[in-house]
Amino acid sequence: MTGNVFDIVASRFPANADAPFIELESGRRYSYRDLRDISGRYARLLADLGVVKGDRVAVQVEKSAEAVFLYLACLRAGAAYLPLNTAYTRAEVGYFLTDAAPRVFVCTPSSAGTLADTAADAGVGTLLTLDSHGEGTLPDRAAGLDPAFDTVACGPDDLAAILYTSGTTGRSKGAMMSHRNLSSNAATLHRLWGFRPDDVLLHVLPIFHTHGLFVATNCVLMNGGSMLFLPKFDPDAVFRLLPRATVMMGVPTFYTRLLSDQRLTRAVTAHMRLFISGSAPLLADTHREFQARTGQAILERYGMTETGMLTSNPLEGDRIPGTVGFPLPDVSVRVADEKTGRPVADGEVGVLEVKGPNVFSGYWRMAEKTAQEFRADGFFITGDIGRIDARGYVHIIGRAKDLVISGGFNVYPKEVETVIDAIDGVVESAVIGVPHRDFGEAVVAVVLRRPDADGVDEAAVIRACKEQLANFKVPKAVVFADELPRNAMGKVQKNLLRDANKDLFDKRAA
Ligand code: AMP
């Protein structure tokens, strides 16, 4: 599959240009004709503003149909689309603009006042605006332009997008995604997940991240199908729309929130063909409870910004709770010793390394960092610790950087979390390493318990761990919390937990 991603998906658009592409909650619809015309006008405007192949277009806007058309316009103009999380502050945006040096920056009208100087300081040529209703200077200036735009020819290795990693440690890095990266992954997922012409995707994810943009939106584009497009995950709207949808993609927190709602029943999900989860681990309990309530087995898959999707539980066959399934057909996944890079024995734990047409070419202007994260034979070191079981299912144990080294022994947080989560009355837990005078780092468990779980105290958690785990893995302290800090993609932010508890042992000693 070669060429501009836009041409590849456009070859699969429905013959009837009036067929729906996006439907908003208000009932407003955008057809495939709208997709072509609006993205064509936006591409024309970008070209008129001097955007040429390889230029970056940075975008920090709320979710809207027009934001999707802007993404497509960038592809058509041969530019690299650079979406930014709407939560980023002015200082963070300043870093991204300076680092990526985009020719155009599109932001919300309400932030244009504060970001104008930041953009100018970073040398951005043009600042445009777009709001959540699809209004702003971008659509205004594009309004009178010719919608016919000849999509710029691109080779498979040409840059299609730059996605900055969420980077909880060090500087955020811009992962360079090529046209091949995006189109190969979208084509594989579209086939593997059995998309049908009449599938309707319920889109509730943000579109500044791989999951909502390259997985959800690109699958719909590959399908020439339609999506019900919500600004965010809102249970009321989800329950209203589920009977009209066939596929939903979500992060695990969406599923736990649906489960905590009485409206989640077999009947309300009867029209659904597929629930998909990713971006963070789905608790096996959540998977089982969801299946018991609805009869639907959530399909869990695994991927990351730099690589797109890597593994998936099967469409046909066993979707095993707590696993992320098999490597995708065109992706090689191996497990290696983190330090030596040598393959570990079958079934053993190590760092996951991957190779395939979906794997990015490197970090923007960080050649050295890029070189450190690839092996000599081209495998990318994901930084995720995992293992592959006898049936070929991949299990994720956690991030290498979350590994706790206590008294010289390696502790994988997931192993301890699994024991704690199984305690009656525990909702979930996060195990972290906290500085400790004797051990270097000590294992600490942050635990959420049910309000009625009277018996679950520090001693009970430690007792349960002692029964099942070697002593060095047993938490030295247990902290109870009302919730775990999560980012927009539902990932537990262990760095925040580590910061909040860094003086824990000094305080306890005092
Ligand atoms: P991001 O680049 O923000 O998409 O984050 C990618 C990381 O999320 C991966 O490297 C994993 O650590 C984690 N991740 C994604 N999907 C899963 C999953 N299904 N189970 C466990 N971790 C996941």
Question: Overview of this structure, please?
Answer:
The protein is an alpha/beta fold and 510 residues long. Helices cover 31% and strands 24% of the residues. The chain has 16 helices and 25 strands. It has a nine-stranded mixed β-sheet. Strands 4-3-5-6 form a four-stranded parallel β-sheet. Strand 1 and strand 2 form a beta hairpin. Helix 4 packs across helix 5 (109-121). It is globular, with a radius of gyration of 23 Å. The structure holds adenosine monophosphate.
In short:
The protein has 510 residues and is an alpha/beta fold. The strands form six sheets. The protein has a nine-stranded mixed sheet with strand order 2-1-10-9-11-12-13-14-15. A four-stranded parallel sheet has the order 4-3-5-6. The chain has a four-stranded antiparallel sheet with strand order 16-17-19-20. The chain starts with a helix and ends with a helix.
Provide tags for this entry.
single chain, 4-stranded parallel sheet, binds adenosine monophosphate, 31% helix, 16 helices, 9-stranded mixed sheet, 510 residues, alpha/beta
Could you outline the blueprint of secondary structure elements for this entry?
Blueprint: H1 5-10, E1 20-24, E2 29-31, H2 32-48, E3 56-60, H3 65-77, E4 80-83, H4 90-100, E5 104-107, H5 109-121, E6 126-129, H6 137-142, E7 159-164, E8 174-178, H7 179-192, E9 200-203, H8 210-223, E10 226-229, H9 235-241, E11 247-250, H10 252-259, E12 274-277, H11 284-294, E13 299-304, E14 308-312, E15 326-327, E16 332-336, E17 350-355, E18 362-363, H12 367-372, E19 380-388, E20 394-399, E21 404-406, E22 409-411, H13 413-421, E23 426-436, E24 440-449, H14 458-468, E25 477-480, H15 494-500, H16 504-509
Parallel strand pairs: 1-10, 3-4, 3-5, 5-6, 9-10, 9-11, 11-12, 12-13, 24-25
Antiparallel strand pairs: 1-2, 7-8, 8-18, 13-14, 14-15, 16-17, 17-19, 19-20, 21-22, 23-24
The structure holds adenosine monophosphate (AMP).
